[in-house]
C-alpha cells in the first residue's frame, strides 16, 4: 500500500477507533488517551464538589476518589450492535497490507481467536455474544471518546455515560493524569485479545478493570470480583502495551516504547502478580476455587469440643458479614454461628483446612521450590481431589506470570520527539505542546484525528470513515420514506461542545442529536448509500447545504468549519476548499 494510502487508513481509523483498528495501529491507543486529555470534559470534573481538596490527598486516596466518580457516572457497555456490523473478509482485505491474516486470527477475537483452555471451556463466543452472528458477519467493536461515552445518557435504557473496556481504560488513564495528577510515565495501557486495562505505578501497583480498581491485596483476596479481574492476565497474552514513550505489539517487529520504561513496567507487574504463600492466601485461594471446596472442612473448638463445618458452608456465612474465614476475624465469624450448623465428627473424605494451615505456618513453603511444593502436595493427598492439580492451581493463584510482548529482538524506533506533558501545563498548554510535536510524534498527531477537530486535520480521513464505517443509520433508515424530516427533527445539539469537532453519522443517529453540519453528513451518507449517486455538501461560515441531482437541503451550523465543498462520489470522496 502506498505511504499516503497507509497514512489515510491510519488517520481514518483514528476517527472510528474500533478495537480491530487499534489492534492494527497500536499507536491509536495512546492517541485516544491524548484526545481525552485535550477534551474540556474531564478538566471540568475538577469543578465538581466531589473532588474538593483532592490536591491534599495521597496519590492512592486521589485514585480511589476518582474511581467512585467513574463508578457513579459510567456503566460498562458491551452491546455489540451499538455501532453496527461488518464482514470479516471486508476488514481482512482492508488490513491485508498491514498484518498477516493468520497472525490476526490468532490474536483478535473477531477473527477467530478463542483464547486458552479457559476460554474454550466457557465458550468465549457465546460469553461475549459473538455466537449470534452467522458466517463472516462481525460487529464493529468501537471505542468511544469521553464525549461519545457521556452521550450514552441519550440512548434508551441508559441513565449515565457508558463505554466498553478500551473506552473505560482510556477514560481512566486521562482522568488519572488530569484529576489524580498521576504522571503519564506511571500509566501503562494493556490490551489482550479480549480486554483492555491499565497498570498504574502507585504503591504496589494498581490495575484498572473497566470501572473498578484492583490493588495487590484485592488481586489475591479470592472474591468473585477479583476472579473476574484476574481473568485476562491469567488466560491471555498481552498483545499491546502503550505508554507515553511509545508502544510494543506482540506481532510487530518494530516497537517505539522506551526499553527502560518497559523493563520498569514488566518488573513491577510481575511483582504485583506474585505473593508468598500464607495461611490467609491459602484461604483466599479456597474461596475462589469453588470446585475444590467440597474436599475441605474447617475445625472449630467451641467450649473445649472440636466441631467441623464444610468449608463452602463457612464461606457462605461471609455474605453480609464484615468478618472473614481467611483472616484474623475468623473466630468472630464462627462464634456468631449456632451450634447446629457444625458437625460433631470430621466429615469423611475432606481435608481439615486447619491442619494444612499449621503446615504452612511451620514450614513456610516456597512456591518456587520443587521440594516445598512436593511436600505441599503430600498434605492434600486424598481421594477427593487430584493433589497435583490442586497444588498447581494454588501456585498459579499466588504467581501469575504475565505473557508480555518480548522486547528482545524488536527494532526500537522511538518517536523523534517525546510528549513531555504534565497536568500543571493545563489543557491549553498541553494542546499547544501536542500541536508543536505532532509532526514528530505519531500518537500526538493521531490524537487530533481521534479528537475530531476538523480545523486541525484534513477532511479526507473523517469523510472516509463516514462513508465506510457507519452502517447503523443506513440500516435503520433503509425503508424510511421521510428520512429528511426525521434527520431534520433530531435535536440541534452536538455531542462535541467545541467548535470544529464533529460527530460521525452513526453517533448522530444513535444519540438523536447533532449540529446542522453533522445532520447534513448523516443525511448525505444515507442518501449516497441508497443510490450511489453523487452528493455534495457546501459549507459556509453559518450554513451547510446538501445537494443531490434532485434535492437541496440547508441546515444552520455553529461548528466554524472553514468554507469548503465535500463530495461523495463512486465510493470515493472529494474535498475542495472554497
Describe this structure in words.
The structure is a single chain. The longest helix is centred in the last third of the chain and has 16 residues, at 516-531. A hairpin with a 5-residue loop joins strand 6 and strand 7. The chain has 27 helices and 20 strands. The protein folds into three domains: 3-274 and 403-449, no CATH class; 279-398, no CATH class; 456-577, no CATH class. The mean pLDDT is 91. 43% of the residues are buried. With 578 residues, it is α+β, with helices and mostly antiparallel strands. Helix 3 crosses helix 22. The chain is elongated, with a radius of gyration of 27 Å. The chain has a six-stranded antiparallel β-sheet with strand order 8-7-6-5-9-10, with helices on both faces.
> Average pLDDT value?
91
Instruction: Report the end-to-end length measured between terminal Cα atoms.
Output: 30 Å
Shape: elongated
Number of domains: 3
Please tell me how large the radius of gyration is.
27 Å
Derived from helix and strand composition plus strand pairing, the structural class reads alpha+beta
**Helical stretch tally:** 27
Task: Catalogue the unreliable spans.
Answer: none
Helix content: 40-55%
Strand order of the largest sheet: 8-7-6-5-9-10
- Please report the total strand number as a whole number: 20
Strand content: 5-15%
Assembly category: single chain
Main sheet characteristics? 6 strands, antiparallel
Amino acid at each position: 500500500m502506498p505511504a499516503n494510502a497507509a497514512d489515510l487508513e491510519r488517520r481514518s481509523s483514528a476517527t472510528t477507533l474500533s478495537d480491530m483498528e487499534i489492534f492494527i495501529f497500536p499507536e491509536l491507543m495512546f492517541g485516544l488517551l491524548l484526545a481525552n486529555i485535550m477534551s474540556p470534559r474531564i478538566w471540568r470534573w475538577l469543578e465538581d464538589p466531589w473532588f474538593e481538596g483532592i490536591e491534599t490527598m495521597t496519590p492512592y486516596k486521589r485514585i480511589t476518589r476518582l474511581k467512585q466518580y467513574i463508578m457513579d457516572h459510567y456503566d460498562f457497555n458491551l452491546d455489540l450492535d451499538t455501532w453496527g456490523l461488518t464482514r470479516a473478509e471486508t476488514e481482512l482485505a482492508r488490513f491485508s497490507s498491514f498484518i498477516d491474516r493468520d497472525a490476526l486470527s490468532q490474536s483478535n477475537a473477531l477473527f477467530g481467536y478463542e483464547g486458552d483452555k479457559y476460554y474454550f471451556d466457557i465458550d468465549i463466543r457465546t460469553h461475549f455474544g459473538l455466537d449470534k452472528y452467522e458466517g463472516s458477519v462481525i460487529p464493529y467493536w468501537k471505542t468511544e471518546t469521553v464525549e461519545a461515552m457521556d452521550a450514552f445518557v441519550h440512548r434508551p435504557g441508559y441513565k449515565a455515560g457508558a463505554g466498553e473496556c478500551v473506552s473505560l481504560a482510556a477514560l481512566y488513564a486521562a482522568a488519572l493524569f488530569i484529576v489524580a495528577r498521576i504522571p503519564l510515565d506511571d500509566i501503562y495501557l494493556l490490551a489482550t485479545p479480549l480486554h483492555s486495562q491499565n497498570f498504574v505505578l502507585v504503591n504496589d501497583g494498581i490495575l484498572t478493570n473497566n470501572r473498578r480498581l484492583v490493588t495487590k491485596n484485592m488481586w489475591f483476596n479470592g472474591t468473585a470480583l477479583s476472579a473476574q479481574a484476574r481473568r485476562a492476565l491469567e488466560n491471555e497474552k498481552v498483545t499491546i502495551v502503550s505508554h507515553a514513550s511509545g508502544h510494543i505489539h506482540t506481532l510487530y517487529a518494530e516497537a517505539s516504547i522506551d526499553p527502560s520504561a518497559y523493563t520498569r513496567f514488566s518488573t513491577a507487574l510481575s511483582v504485583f502478580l506474585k505473593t508468598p504463600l500464607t495461611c490467609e492466601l491459602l484461604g483466599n485461594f479456597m474461596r475462589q476455587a469453588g470446585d475444590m471446596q467440597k474436599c475441605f472442612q474447617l475445625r472449630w473448638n467451641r467450649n473445649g469440643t472440636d466441631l467441623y463445618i464444610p468449608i463452602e458452608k463457612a464461606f457462605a456465612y461471609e455474605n453480609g458479614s464484615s468478618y472473614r474465614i481467611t483472616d484474623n476475624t475468623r473466630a468472630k465469624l464462627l462464634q456468631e454461628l449456632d451450634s447446629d450448623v457444625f458437625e460433631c465428627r470430621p466429615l469423611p473424605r475432606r481435608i481439615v483446612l486447619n491442619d494444612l494451615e499449621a503446615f504452612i505456618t511451620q514450614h513456610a513453603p516456597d512456591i518456587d521450590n520443587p521440594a516445598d511444593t512436593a511436600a505441599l502436595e503430600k498434605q492434600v493427598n486424598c481421594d477427593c481431589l487430584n493433589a497435583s492439580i490442586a497444588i498447581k492451581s494454588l501456585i498459579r493463584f499466588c504467581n501469575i506470570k504475565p505473557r508480555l510482548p518480548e522486547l528482545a529482538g524488536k527494532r526500537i524506533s522511538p518517536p523523534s520527539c517525546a510528549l513531555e506533558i504534565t497536568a500543571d501545563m493545563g489543557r491549553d498548554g498541553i494542546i499547544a505542546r501536542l500541536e508543536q510535536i505532532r509532526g514528530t510524534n505519531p500518537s500526538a498527531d493521531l490524537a487530533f484525528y481521534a479528537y475530531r477537530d476538523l480545523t486541525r486535520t484534513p477532511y479526507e480521513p473523517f469523510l472516509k470513515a463516514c462513508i465506510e464505517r457507519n452502517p447503523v443509520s443506513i440500516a435503520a433508515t433503509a425503508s424510511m420514506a421521510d428520512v429528511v424530516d426525521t434527520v431534520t427533527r433530531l435535536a440541534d445539539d452536538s455531542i462535541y461542545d467545541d467548535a470544529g469537532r464533529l460527530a460521525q453519522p452513526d453517533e448522530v443517529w444513535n444519540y438523536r442529536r447533532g449540529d446542522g453540519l453533522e445532520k447534513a453528513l448523516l443525511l448525505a451518507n444515507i442518501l449516497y448509500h441508497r443510490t450511489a449517486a453523487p452528493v455534495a455538501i457546501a459549507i459556509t461560515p453559518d450554513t451547510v447545504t446538501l445537494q443531490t441531482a434532485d434535492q437541496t437541503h440547508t441546515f444552520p451550523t455553529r461548528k466554524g468549519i472553514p468554507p469548503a465543498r465535500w463530495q461523495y462520489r463512486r465510493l470515493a470522496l472529494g474535498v475542495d476548499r472554497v
